[in-house]
Structures are given as C-alpha cells and as structure tokens.
Amino acid sequence: MTFRVSRRAVLGAALLLAGGMPALAQDNSQPIRIGWLSSLTGPLSSAAIAENVGVQFAVDEINAAGGINGRKLELVTRDTMGDPTKAVNFAQQLAFSEKVDFVIGPVNSGESLAAVPILSRAGIPNIIIGTVDELTNPQLYPRAFRAINTNTQWVGSANAYAVDKLKASKIAIIGDTTGYGTATVKQAEALLKERGIEPVYSALVDANKTDLTDELGKARAAGAEVVMPWSAATGLLGRILNTRGEMNWDVPVVGHPAIMGTPIRALLNKPEYWENTYAAGYASTTYDETGKFPERTQALMDAVRPKLGGKIDFTFWWIALGYDTVKIIEHAVKTAGSTDGEAVQKALEDTKDLKLVYATYSWGPEDRNGFPDADIVINLANTFRDGGFKAAPNQ
Fold it and tell me: What domain count does the chain have?
C-alpha cells in the first residue's frame, strides 16, 4: 500500500516539531463562546443584574472592535435564579451540550460550590465571582480563577474596622441560612476569635423571615457594640436596619457590601435608618473628597452611562466586576493565542498586575485569587452617588 503525503503536510509537521506552529490552526470563523451563569431573578438577583450590564457591555465593546484575535464573542446566558440545583444543571449543559470555551460565574457562592467542580472536571476555564474561599484550589480546580475578592478579605476588613476603628469588643453576627451565609458566619466568628474576641451573639435566619425583633433584641441584650450582618439578601438586610431603627438602637452595623446597595434605600421605613452603617467596598468605586472616582472607573462610567439612560442606579462595582470578567477572558485568549484550556490556564497563571477597572489582578501557579488586599476599603453606606460611595471615617 502506498501513502501519498503532500508537501504542505510535511512542512506543517516539521514546523510543529520545531515549535513553530500549533497542530491545528485556529478557526477564526467560529465565535468564542462564553457561558454566563447568573441569578438574574430570585432573592439574590440585585448584584447579578448589575453584573450582567458589565458583562454584556464588555462583550458588545469587544465585538464592535472586531472580537478577540478576529473571533467574535457569543454570550450564552443561563438564569440560575439563585438555585444551586439549577446552577449544576446549567453548568453541565454549558460544558457538555453547548460546549462553551469559558464560563463566568455562578454569581453566588452557594451555587458556585456546587457548579465549580463540574466545570473543573470538564476542563472549562472558569472565571469565579463567588467569594467563599474554598472555591479556588489549584490542585482541585486548576482552571478556576477568581476575579472578585475572597470572603476572608471582606470579613477581615469589616472586623478590622469594627475592632480597630470603632473600638468594639462586643460583636453580634447575623447571617442567613444559605450556603454563603452559614459559611461566612463561621468564618467571621473564627477570625474574631483570632483577634481574641468571642462574639456575644450569633444567629442564622431564613432570608425571607419578616420579623427580626427577636434576633436584634437578643443582640442588644447581650451588649453588642456592633452588629455584623453577613448575607447578600437585600430584603433581609433591609429588615435588619428597619428593626434596629424601630428599636431606637443606634448600634453601628458593619458587614456585607449588599447592605449599602441601592435596593436597600427602597426597603427602609425611614432614610435615617441607613445612618451609622458601614460595609466592605472597593477603592475602584470610592470617590475622594472632591467627588472624583479613579480614572479607569470614571472612563467606564462615562461609556456605560448612555446605555443606562444617563443615570447610574446600580452599585457600580458590580458593573465593573462583570466588565472585568470578560476583559480577563480577552487577556487570556490574546496571551495564549487560542482558547485551548491548558494554554489559557498557563496564561492566567503568568498574569501579574493586569490593570482593569474593578481591580488590578495577579494570579500564579499556586494562587487563583487575583484581587489585592489594597483594593478593599470600608464605605459609609448612605453616601451612594453615581454608583460609588464615600470612604468610612478613619480609613
């Protein structure tokens, strides 16, 4: 039997052995498919809706500029409704049926804890925007890279403000019964104990519970000098502030960023119930004494504003985070020269000081958490303006 081998095939094989070209040329006619697992409806949707603005804006911006290496982006969105079961089912669908090149999300840690292992087994590069620390592990999930800060960074900064700035030693912690709330209350307790502080009261409540008089009453009776809520459920957070206000208890509240999100305003019985409330926030969306935001933040705000009807009602860091997740993918594909999972992993492992809007990111072979400690600040909750906040006193 005689085999005919073309001159082109011989040349291609020679170049491949010399490291001069990949085995298969990238097909620029095929889009880069990005799966987007987002809880666009349900009790945890407020952040996801804002993130979606940023994700979609980045996709449109990159496509308008010709795509990445000539390939357009195709966004494949699935609404998980905040349900871990749906997140698992959609993660399997995106990986094995839709055959996406990347997945962003899920947006909530409870969903991510269930979905990230599935995406890892499928070898799909996954941009994580859940904060629970266990979501990243270079051995278990080598292609999962976190864009948002870790929960430790949120909790640690809030603890430091409560203890070091507010001089509190008696602290009450309230979380919800979701996977995120349960894990974070335990973490907050542990980090306080490392500082020699035993919480005077700690409770987990259903995010839909309407009457929190018992919980706040017990915290007050225990002598709490600070109440720390750890939940992303804005309804629950609003009820905590309303209950505190109705009790005429001016105890400082320090906790999760959602407690200063714009949906809270509409939930308050009185505007003054938002006073003396602080939350972990970001340098990128903190305005200075003259009212100015960092340059990169301002540039994105100016670009997005027309699409939002000229007004930014969202907490802008979620928009910036959503935007950055797509720009991280752009950086990875350009650096790797393809969407190959192994090449993308290497490109992100070698990324140092990637300056985007929400943060400046660095990852490594043993580090999948790209958000720097220096980009966390504590904000004063009732100072929302144009998507950002004023720094809390004594920062």
Answer: 2
What is the model's pTM?
Answer: 0.83
Is the same domain home to 161 and 265?
yes
* 334, 195: one domain: no
48 in a structural domain = yes
Residue type, 107: V
| Other CB atoms within 10 Å distance of the CB of residue 198 | 11
Q: Is 248 exposed, middle or buried (0-12, 13-18, 19+ CB in 10 A)?
A: exposed
Higher-confidence residue of 19 and 256: namely 256
pLDDT digits (tens, 9 = 90+) for 75-92: 999 999 999 999 999 999
Q: In this structure, is residue 62 part of a structural domain?
A: yes
The amino acid present at 194, given as its one-letter code, is E
130 assigned to some structural domain: yes
CATH of the domain at 128: 3.40.50.2300
Percent residues over pLDDT 70 in the chain: 93
Question: What helix, strand, coil percent values describe the chain, rounded to 5?
Answer: 45, 15, 35
DSSP secondary-structure letter at 43? T
Alpha-helical segments (H) within 195-262: 213-221, 234-246
Clarify whether residues 236 and 382 are in a common domain: yes
> Where in the sequence is the domain holding 166, given as residue range(s)?
152-289+378-390
d(CA 249, CA 183): 28
CA pair distance 287, 294, nearest whole angstrom: 7
Buried b (16+ CB within 10 A) or exposed e, 5-33: eeeeeeebeeeeeeeeeeeeeeeeeeebb
- By three-state DSSP, how is residue 39 classified? coil
